[in-house]
Amino acid sequence: MVIVTVLLRLLPISMLLVLVTIPIVYKHVKEFFAVQDKKRTFILSVKNSFTIVTMITIAGICELLFDGLIK
């Protein structure tokens, strides 16, 4: 979805950095479904949220810093 929205120019190209989070989030989701114990897996949800929000923030900062250089 991110790739399509970047190609349609609805999101800046820097948002492609979010795709870097896929392996990390996938690993955590896999662990979550294997255990299904809130006490042990809640932290995985927190880590996933932090990872995704951090990468979106970095992509936004990159867009602000380098706006116009890629165009």
Which class do the helix and strand fractions yield?
mainly alpha
> How many E-type strands?
0
Helix fraction bin: 55-70%
The portion of residues forming beta strands comes to under 5%
Summarize the helix and strand pattern as letters. HHH
Q: Domains counted in the coordinates: how many?
A: 1
| Mean pLDDT rating | 87
Shape: elongated
The major beta sheet can be summarized as: none
Radius of gyration: 15 Å
Summarize the structure.
The chain is mainly α and 71 residues long. It has three helices and no strands.
Provide the descriptors you would attach to this structure in a database record.
single chain, 71 residues, mainly alpha, 3 helices
Report on this model:
It contains three helices and no strands. The radius of gyration is 15 Å and the shape is elongated. The chain has one domain. Helix 2 packs antiparallel against helix 3. With 71 residues, it is mainly α.
Q: Which helices and strands occur, and which strands form pairs?
A:
Elements: H1 2-7, H2 22-35, H3 38-66
Helix pairs in contact: 2-3
